[in-house]
Input
Amino acid sequence: MGSRRLGFKLETPLINLEIALEELVRLHIHEEIIPEKMLDLVAKMPGDGVFIHPIIVDSRSLVVLDGMHRVAAAKEIGFRYIPVCLVDYANPHIQIGCWYRMFGGLNDASEAEAALRRVGMTPTHRPYEVAHGLVEERKAVTAAFSRDWSLTATAPTGGIKERYEVIKRIEVRLQESGHAMGYSTDRDALLRIVAGEFSAGLMTPTVTKKEVVETALAGKVFSQKTTRHIIPARPMNVNVPIVWLHGNISLDEANTRLREHLASKRIDKLPPGQILDRRYDEELYVFK
Output
C-alpha cells in the first residue's frame, strides 16, 4: 500500500484499505463522465462543506476505480487534493462486473435486428446463455435480448474499447427511435425484464483489470458505465472538510489532519446489501 501518503489504515477480512488525501493531478480516470452529473456535483459539494465518501483508487497506478464524476467535479471546483481509498487492485477479491444497457418499448426482435444492421453488425438468433458466452469470450461484440429472443451481433472490430464504442452507437440508434435507456447489472438484467421494468437489453463484455489500467495510463477513457467494480469493503462518511482540499496547507499536513480526524471517530460495520444513496454489494465501514 502507498505508505508514502501516511494515510489512515483500515484492515478488513478480505482487503486492506488506506484512506488518504492525494493530489488530483496524479490520478487517472478510465471512463467518460456525464457532464450534467458532474455539474450537479459542482453545485452541491461546496454547500456540503465536506467531501463525504472517498473515491476508490488503485494504490500502484493511481487509476480511479470508482468516483470518476467526483474527480471531475473536484477539478472543476479547483481543489488540489481529494480523499481517496487506496486498494491493491491485484487483490483477487476486487472483481469487475459490467453494466447492461436496458431499454423500454423494444419488444420486437426485428426492430433490434434492424438497429444492429444499421451500425454494421451481423445479427444471429442464439439462445440467451449461448449469446452471453459469446459476448464474454469476445466472439460477439454484443447481444440484444428480451425474455423471448436474443441476437448476437458480430463484426470485424478492434479491442475492448472499440467494442464499447460500437455498443454506444447502438445505444444512440435505439434512443433516437424512442426507446428510453437505463442500466442494470449483468446479474439482474434478465430478471428485471421478466419483472417488467424493461423490455430488452444489450449485453456488454467484461473488461479486465489490465485493460482498465492500460487504457487510463494511456490517457484514454472507456464509454461511461463500462466497468462495475466490486470492492469487498468500502469506507463511508469520512466527511473531510473541504477547506483542507484547496491546497493552502501541505499534503503532509493535510494527511496528518485526516488521520487525526478519522481516528477520533467510531466505525460501524454494515453487511452487504445496504441501500444508502444507492445499493452497496460490499461491506461498509461507516465513520460516525
In short: The helical segments are 35-48, 68-77, 109-118, 128-136, 160-176, 189-194, 209-217, 251-263. The longest strand covers residues 16-23. The chain has two domains: 3-94+229-287, 99-205. The mean pLDDT is 95.
